[in-house]
Inverse folding.
């Protein structure tokens, strides 16, 4: 989910002759190494590696190692390839690549990176294939390649035309051109990229034919559920399955062990039955004596006490530019702001609960997984089954939401543990309660911000002390715990004369990992709320205050990371200006109405939001949210808009409705009656404006989320004069 | 226990425990996987089907109660995605991950049968008990209104700007 993207560098080119059904085919493979942050090394966020195949029927197929989870890449990636190949975008078929490290390398889908990482490799592959096809046609006609053109799946010269299918056998014998010098189309000549197109995966999602992980049906398959210890880190002491085994359809009941090496999986008691329902019913009849483990007394309140104690005491200094402590201590009271912000654990709550289907035989295994990390799945099934990875075939299905949860491999590990014992294909189903109470949650965190403005309205000092249940600390204790938690605080977009960052981790047994936009969902809220507070202390309009503090022509690097992509403050200003303009910022509002603004940089993208809301009698109504995004080239603007709308609603749910609280070492909220989400009635009008750009595309699955909560809470401050610093909004906060 | 009922126009007999929710009979016994499991407590709407034309949450509807009745699932809505609601869903590009959309569509179809010319507010009320984690409510709202008045483009333009937002 995290990780910065290096400039794509093509390091391998391969031409293979395929003896497939269509005879010889032109196959081009390419890959992009990716520079990872230390903390992200485990599990790896993958480079893009994919293959383009043109067969003798002229069919062009993109074997995509990235997966569709509703983010629209099964449309956007073919568009990029089609552009360079001179095809209609519909004419590029996309096929989910089989999991095969020798052909595709690492295959994960995450970090808002699928389009950004694929952009240049796909274009170069398309341009290389085009050049080979043109060269072949030109040789046949004995004309110059420069007099030929490519359109509609054929090479043209005057009135002559040869289809790709007619050319492909000869073309495949040519050497692949040097990817570094292939002629790419100029942005002004794009006819596909940047034009909104309907998504390829939508029709099948309207008639029940789209197959998700839970829809996998294999002859002879059986169904399984697992009873896991409610408290995190607990174990089975003993169990009695006598009653469970009296129920119909029960095939087997047995214990599966906890695994903490390479993957985090809780273990428990597995129930295997002929149907999902029978397995679920039998699980209720199990008598299990649990050892509740070392975290059984943890609660949200004990965690909060720990957080507050940490920020009250000396902390680890991560960054100290200037004399923030001194300036803050000397600042007059009316020019100083001190504020504590708190964010809870959040569940992913993908609509399709975790699941995985595994069939283990003596010499091979097959897996059907709705998963963001196919190779990790392959590794864990290999690890459990004892088969080499190349004997584990992993089929990636459609995903009923991912949001980072499906980057884990715990569900595949459990399925493999069960399938190892049951000589049939086994579909492991997590109930909603399993899914919500055994998630890897967005970390809970606590932030103490102190700052001061001077007479001229400059930010004289900004100090951010924070603590959290660190992701890095949970997964990889070799990395510093703050490496997964600080986000854009390490690329402070605003001019602050003195700046200090402090972080100390909190101890917790609650599992946590990457949740849509990861640490940006936290940091965006804190920084942009505090920015608003400073603007008010300075007596300056919050929009104008941001513009002023972004300065001019600034490139902000992460001082702790050599490979970071610099934040371009001018691009941030531009999205702020666009959002302000489209939202009538500064124009009069109705009684009880107000606007709030916020912006954030994440996944190399720039997003600004304006929330317009009304508070009447303590009740909140969201009137409109205007979002402006700069993601470089928007390959499919229709898909970009959908992703931003989605991120806004996901962010609003976390700001207004949902949270996971902890009691007795377990998650309190277990289903959608307790973990509520933004309904249609509550969903405001959403407007997404895309900044025109010819820069390479950056991510958009996640960056729309971080600026939502602060823009909303800044609007509520504008209306009510109350600062909401603890999420989610509580009953009575606005009374 | 054997239960006989009609699914998408075909008579089916299943031999399962009578308390088995219709959802699991559809999915695991009849292999109709278009109807989705989301919560198991009738809270999310992903499992919505029609029983004798009425929308029902199949995850809490025991199969014994369906005996002799007519069940329509997403697979039975049209043979070719030609139902106006399906067409409107495509036109508005409503689905993202798509998992909740069978239930959304079945809810909308039943609603429009009862209220063929709804206001945006009525759509909001009818659809607010279906959960979508991808946040497609705005597009679903537009799709329902489009289906209701598919030929009136002006109406759709208004629908896109329809409010909502009451927390």
């Amino acid at each position: 989910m995290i990780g910065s993207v290096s400039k794509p560098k093509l390091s391998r080119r391969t031409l293979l002759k395929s003896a497939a059904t269509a005879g010889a085919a032109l196959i081009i493979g390419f890959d992009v190494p990716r520079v990872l942050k230390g903390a992200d090394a485990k599990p790896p966020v993958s480079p893009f590696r994919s293959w383009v195949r043109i067969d003798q029927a002229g069919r062009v197929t993109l074997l995509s190692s990235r997966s569709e989870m509703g983010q629209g890449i099964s449309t956007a990636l073919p568009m990029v390839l089609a552009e360079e190949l001179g095809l209609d975008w519909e004419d590029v078929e996309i096929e989910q690549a089989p999991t095969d490290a020798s052909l595709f390398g690492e295959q994960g889908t995450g970090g808002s990176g699928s389009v950004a990482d694929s952009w240049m490799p796909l274009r170069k592959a398309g341009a290389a294939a085009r050049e080979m096809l043109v060269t072949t046609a030109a040789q046949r006609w004995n004309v110059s390649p420069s007099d030929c053109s490519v359109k509609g799946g054929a090479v043209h010269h005057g009135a002559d035309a040869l289809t790709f299918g007619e050319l492909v056998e000869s073309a495949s014998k040519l050497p692949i051109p040097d990817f570094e010098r292939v002629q790419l189309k100029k942005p002004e000549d794009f006819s596909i990229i940047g034009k909104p197109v309907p998504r390829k995966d939508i029709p099948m999602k309207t008639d029940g034919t789209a197959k998700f992980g839970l829809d996998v049906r294999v002859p002879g398959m059986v169904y399984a559920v697992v009873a896991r210890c409610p408290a995190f880190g607990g174990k089975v002491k003993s169990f009695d399955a006598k009653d469970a085994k009296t129920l119909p359809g029960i095939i087997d009941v047995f214990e599966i062990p906890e695994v903490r090496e390479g993957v985090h999986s809780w273990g428990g008691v597995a129930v295997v039955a002929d149907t999902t329902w029978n397995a679920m019913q039998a699980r209720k009849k199990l008598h299990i004596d649990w050892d509740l483990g070392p975290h059984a007394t943890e609660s949200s309140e004990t965690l909060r006490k720990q957080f507050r104690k940490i920020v009250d005491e000396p902390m680890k200094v991560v960054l100290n530019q200037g004399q923030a402590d001194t300036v803050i201590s000397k600042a007059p009271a009316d020019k100083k702001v001190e504020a504590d912000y708190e964010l809870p654990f959040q569940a992913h709550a993908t609509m399709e609960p975790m699941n995985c289907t595994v069939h283990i035989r003596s010499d091979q295994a097959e897996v059907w997984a709705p998963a963001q990390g196919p190779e990790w799945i392959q590794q864990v099934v290999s690890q459990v089954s004892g088969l080499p990875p190349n004997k584990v075939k992993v089929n990636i299905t459609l995903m009923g939401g991912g949001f980072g949860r499906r980057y884990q491999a715990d569900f595949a590990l459990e399925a493999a543990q069960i399938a190892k014992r049951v000589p049939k294909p086994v579909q492991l189903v997590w109930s909603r309660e399993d899914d919500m109470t055994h998630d890897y949650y967005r970390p809970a965190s606590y932030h103490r911000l102190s700052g001061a403005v001077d007479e001229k309205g400059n930010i004289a000092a900004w100090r951010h002390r924070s603590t959290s249940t660190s992701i890095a600390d949970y997964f990889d204790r070799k990395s510093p715990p703050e490496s997964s938690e600080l986000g854009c605080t390490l690329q402070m977009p605003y001019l602050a004369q003195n700046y200090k960052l402090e972080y100390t981790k909190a101890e917790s047994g609650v599992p946590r990992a990457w949740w849509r936009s990861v640490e940006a969902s936290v940091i965006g809220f804190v920084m942009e709320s505090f920015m608003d507070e400073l603007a008010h202390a300075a007596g300056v309009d919050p929009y104008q205050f941001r513009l002023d503090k972004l300065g001019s022509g600034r490139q902000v690097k992460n001082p702790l990371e050599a490979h970071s992509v610099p934040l371009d403050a001018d691009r941030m200003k531009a999205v702020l200006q666009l959002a302000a303009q489209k939202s009538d910022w500064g124009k009069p509002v109705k009684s009880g109405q107000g606007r709030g603004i916020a912006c954030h940089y994440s996944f190399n993208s720039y997003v600004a939001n304006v929330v317009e809301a009304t508070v009447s009698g303590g009740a909140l109504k969201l009137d409109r949210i205007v979002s402006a995004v700069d993601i470089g080239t928007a390959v499919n603007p229709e898909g970009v808009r959908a992703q931003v709308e989605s991120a806004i609603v996901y962010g609003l749910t976390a700001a207004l409705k949902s949270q996971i609280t902890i009691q007795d070492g377990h998650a309190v909220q277990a289903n959608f009656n307790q973990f509520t989400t933004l309904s249609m009635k509550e969903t405001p009008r959403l407007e997404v404006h895309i900044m025109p750009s010819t820069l390479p595309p950056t991510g958009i699955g996640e960056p729309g989320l971080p600026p939502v909560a602060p823009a909303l809470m800044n609007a509520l401050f504008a209306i009510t004069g109350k600062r909401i610093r603890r999420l989610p909004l509580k009953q009575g906060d606005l009374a | 226990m054997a239960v006989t009922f009609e699914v998408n126009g075909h008579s089916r007999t299943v031999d399962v425990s009578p308390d088995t929710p219709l959802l699991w009979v559809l999915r695991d016994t009849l292999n109709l996987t278009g109807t989705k499991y989301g919560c198991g407590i009738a809270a999310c709407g992903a499992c919505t089907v029609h029983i004798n034309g009425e929308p029902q949450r199949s995850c809490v509807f025991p199969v014994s109660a369906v005996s002799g009745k007519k069940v329509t699932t997403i697979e039975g809505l049209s043979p070719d995605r030609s139902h106006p609601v399906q067409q409107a869903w495509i036109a508005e590009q409503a689905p993202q991950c798509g998992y909740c959309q069978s239930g959304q569509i079945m809810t909308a179809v039943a609603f429009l049968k009862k209220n063929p010319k709804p206001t945006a507010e009525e759509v909001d009320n009818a659809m607010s008990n279906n959960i979508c984690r991808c946040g497609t409510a705005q597009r679903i709202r537009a799709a329902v209104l489009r289906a209701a008045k598919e030929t009136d483009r002006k109406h759709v333009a208004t629908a896109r700007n329809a409010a909502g937002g009451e927390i």
Notes: Strands of chain B lie at 2-7, 10-15, 48-51, 54-57, 70-72. Residues 151-157 of chain B have pLDDT under 50 and may be disordered.
